[in-house]
Design a protein that fits this description.
The complex is a heterodimer of chains A (120) and B (253). Chain A is mostly helical and 120 residues long. Chain A contains four helices and no strands. Helices cover 50% and strands 17% of the residues of chain B. The chains are: A mainly alpha (120), B alpha+beta (253).
Chain lengths: 120, 253
């Protein structure tokens, strides 16, 4: 069950990788922050799912808003000549790490609980 | 309400995360491809620039090596002269001749090109617009461009209608005529240049070069020749204010 997201990742990756689609290289920074926004949403979603606080509306709008905001920051940065996309990278990257650490913590407490239950 | 185990609860969120994972995978793949494209696009520019820089360095190197060989030969010669005790007159005379050649105070002969610039025969006689007629006439800047190009291509001596170009020559427009070295000359302008004939010709006939517009309007003829005589500079040399500066190396000599 938990492997399903990874399977989806691989499927999505391979689909586009084998397709001949190309986009202008000027969009590369937009694409990278959009990717980061997606990464943030997925880890946030997994964490919320484990905590039992998952709401699909928050999940989807979170991804959309983060992606749009990050892209807007990149655009603004290009216009005024400042590397504003770094702000998006730092904020989203920090959240990815935070969510990852929380997921790891939940997973560890869960396994230790089960082990104790099995022992008793 | 169980809050810890993901499998005990309704796991619809796993499907939603999976759906977004598919999207993320697509984004990742697209990012990968785009980034690779960016790198590939960046490469050829650098290659071209490097190639050009390499060629230039190579040419510089060859030229410097030739210079070195020449200087070495000269040094050997001078050393030999000094050794045999004939140091005085001949070396000095040679230096003087070189200086004269450079200054343009002696007539010189050698291979080169004869360039004739005249007004364009393509001008429609019924044309009355002054600014259009201007374009068909030979101007001072045409001569400037051509002589500049010739010097750039390695011309050693240039004269225009018998006026030798020297270090402080000027080519100016004075009404209907052109003034070179403060002497009025009129078209056709015959420019004699001594140098490598084919190199000089190529410098002028290069597309987009200095003489491109002149060729288009039939205003220029270029003739290569094995023997051209360029006269000496005959004007006065108005050097009043310049004093030679004694360099440290000059002092020790």
């Amino acid at each position: 069950m938990i492997w399903l997201p990874f399977g989806g990742l691989v499927i999505g990756f391979l689909t586009v990788y084998w397709m001949p689609t190309r986009i202008p290289s000027a969009f590369a920074p937009y694409l990278s922050v959009a990717t980061l926004a997606g990464l943030d949403s997925i880890f946030g979603g997994i964490r919320a799912g484990i905590e039992g606080k998952f709401h699909d509306d928050i999940f989807i709008t979170g991804f959309a808003m983060n992606a749009i905001l990050a892209a807007a920051l990149v655009y603004l940065g290009v216009q005024i000549g400042a590397d504003l996309y770094l702000a998006a990278v730092v904020a989203l990257g920090g959240r990815v790490f935070l969510n990852l650490s929380l997921i790891r913590r939940y997973w560890l407490t869960q396994t230790s609980l089960r082990r104790r239950r099995d022992a008793s | 309400m169980s809050t810890i185990s993901p499998t005990s609860r309704s796991s619809s969120w796993v499907f939603q995360v999976t759906a977004l994972c598919i999207v993320l995978g697509m984004l990742l793949a697209l990012s990968f491809k785009t980034q690779r494209q960016v790198i590939k696009e960046g490469m050829p520019d650098r290659m071209d620039a490097l190639r050009a820089a390499f060629m230039m360095t190579k040419q510089d190197n060859q030229r410097l090596q030739r210079d070195l060989a020449r200087t070495k030969a000269r040094y050997e010669r001078m050393a030999a002269q000094q050794a045999s005790g004939i140091r005085s007159a001949r070396g000095l005379e040679q230096a003087l001749t070189e200086a004269k050649l450079l200054a343009g105070t002696v007539a010189v002969r050698g291979p080169g090109v004869v360039v004739t610039i005249h007004d364009s025969p393509k001008l429609d006689p019924s044309e009355t617009r002054k600014d259009v007629i201007e374009n068909y006439l030979a101007h001072d800047y045409d001569i400037q461009n051509v002589t500049n190009e010739l010097f750039g291509a390695g011309a050693e001596a240039i004269s225009i209608n018998g006026q030798r170009l020297v270090a402080n020559s000027s080519i100016r427009c004075v009404g209907a005529a052109v003034m070179v070295n403060s002497v009025r000359i009129a078209p056709p302008f015959i420019i004699k240049a001594i140098g490598d004939p084919s190199a000089l010709e190529k410098a002028l006939t290069t597309p987009g070069g200095a003489a491109d517009g002149l060729i288009l309007l039939d205003m220029i003829e270029i003739k290569k020749s094995n023997s051209i005589t360029v006269p000496a500079y005959t004007g006065s040399s108005p050097i009043f204010r310049s004093q030679p500066v004694t360099s440290p190396s000059g002092k020790s000599r």
